[in-house]
Amino acid sequence: MPYIAIKGFPKDEETVKKVAERFNDALLELWGCRQKDISISYEAVEPEKWDEEIVRGEVEAKRDRMLIFNGERCGAAKLTIFHMTGCPYCAKARQALGELLEENPAYKSVAIEWIEENEQPEIANRYDYYSVPSIFRGEEKLYEARPTDRYEFIKERVKSALDAVL
To answer: pTM higher than 0.70 for the full model?
Structure first.
């Protein structure tokens, strides 16, 4: 304990050793563990195999446990919003979010991931919803729009979702 597995495009041995040393130093300093308890591995993955083996095979399956995903820090203060281009309810949700961010600066600390369901069906299909916009905290659905939802109601639901992760 701890064990870190590094997977990435092939790198030269010198670079791999330097990265492992930095992880090692950080674990000693910040994790408070003993040197003999640290294990770090490296596995080179060819670029043409990256999406299939790593993204679809590992990253997406562990998305709820990611600390950094696609360069962005993850944490409890994160919402995933499924939407579709041209959807009027999605446009209202975006407008409401913009207004809420202006009204309450604390909401700006919430990471918002917008997923266009037609462009990323492999992700959208893992969630349980029928209509958009749909807002999730992890796998928990916080809001799913209905055709009768008016702007004020959508804004209330977006606010409730933001409040739920703060």
So the answer is: no
- Using an 8 Å Cβ cutoff, are 79 and 135 in contact? yes
Do 56 and 109 belong to one domain?
no
Number of structural domains the chain divides into: 2
Is residue 16 in some structural domain? yes
Q: Is 27 exposed, middle or buried (0-12, 13-18, 19+ CB in 10 A)?
A: buried
Q: How far apart are CA 165 and CA 136, in angstroms?
A: 10
pLDDT for the residue numbered 76: 55
Single-letter amino acid, residue 155: K
Q: Which residue has the tokens 């294990």?
A: 39
Bridge partners for 43 per DSSP: 7
Residue 96: its pLDDT value, please? 98
138 in a domain, yes or no?
A: yes
134 is a domain residue? yes
**Tens-place pLDDT, residues 90-99:** 999 999 999 9
State both tokens at 10: 């092939």
Cβ pair 143, 134 in contact under 8 A: yes
Predicted confidence (pLDDT) at residue 75 exceeds the cutoff of 80? no
